[in-house]
Amino acid sequence: MTAEPTRTVLRITGTDRDSFLQGLVTNDIKKLANGIVYAALLTPQGKYLADFFLVPDEDAILLDVATALAAPLAQRLTMYKLRADVQIAATDIAPVRGLGQAPDGAFADPRHDALGWRAYDGRAGQDGVDWDAIRVAHCIPETGIELTPDSYLLEAGFERLNGVDFRKGCYVGQEVTARMKHKTDLKKGLSMVQTNGKAPVGTPITSGGKPVGTVFTQSGDQAIAYLRFDRATKDMQAGDASVSWPG
User: Fold this and answer.
1) How far apart are CA 247 and CA 240, in angstroms?
2) What is the DSSP secondary structure assignment for residue 30, as one 8-state letter?
3) What value does the mean pLDDT take over residues 90-118?
4) CA distances from 57 to 10, 11, 99, 213 (A)
5) What are phi and psi of 116, to 5 degrees?
6) Model's pTM, two decimal places?
7) CATH entry 3.40.50.620 includes domain 2-183
8) Is 25 within 8 Å of 39 (Cβ atoms)?
9) Residue ranges per domain, the chain?
10) CA 94 to CA 9: how far, in whole Å?
């Protein structure tokens, strides 16, 4: 199992915690009755602010988020709470993850079966899993790498990753997200590409001299890339690396 030192867990308490989060995040808080929930907070314009896991914890909800986003996220949530009976506090809980069947007290990662399980009960350890290889193989974005303030959730694959619910009702950024779902075909988004050679994260991808997108996490001869699908081909470049989109 792998401890995640780059994660911070906030504890959300108060009698209004469920209704408070339900009006803000992209997924349905009612799903906490069945276990862990993956969700995000967006800007009113529908752009990404933070992604996180929500975890049921007796009379509280734990919020597992990248440490770099924890303080600004807590500040943003505090701004939204107004007079709601909600308290937000940092904890010293260290999230742990591992592969295989979830042990007692752990939760299956809701994004993809290949990501194993997550736990918040104090167990510790390391197992050397190449999580980037798993992410790339299944095109699973990571906070701060593929997921940035320019991201739209549907372009990042959040529907496939069980991170958004289109039946739950209103939340911040819902209108833009719903419009992208129901009224347009996605012309851009994250996709797995084949690579030959190495390119640093953020290297532009071009085809015939025209910009096509950006390469992100690489593992072996594959990578996650953000592409303009109408320009993507089997013959692209990202710095010194050649890139091919299977389509």
Assistant:
1) 22
2) G
3) 93
4) 11, 9, 22, 41
5) 70, -130
6) 0.94
7) no
8) yes
9) 2-183, 188-244
10) 7
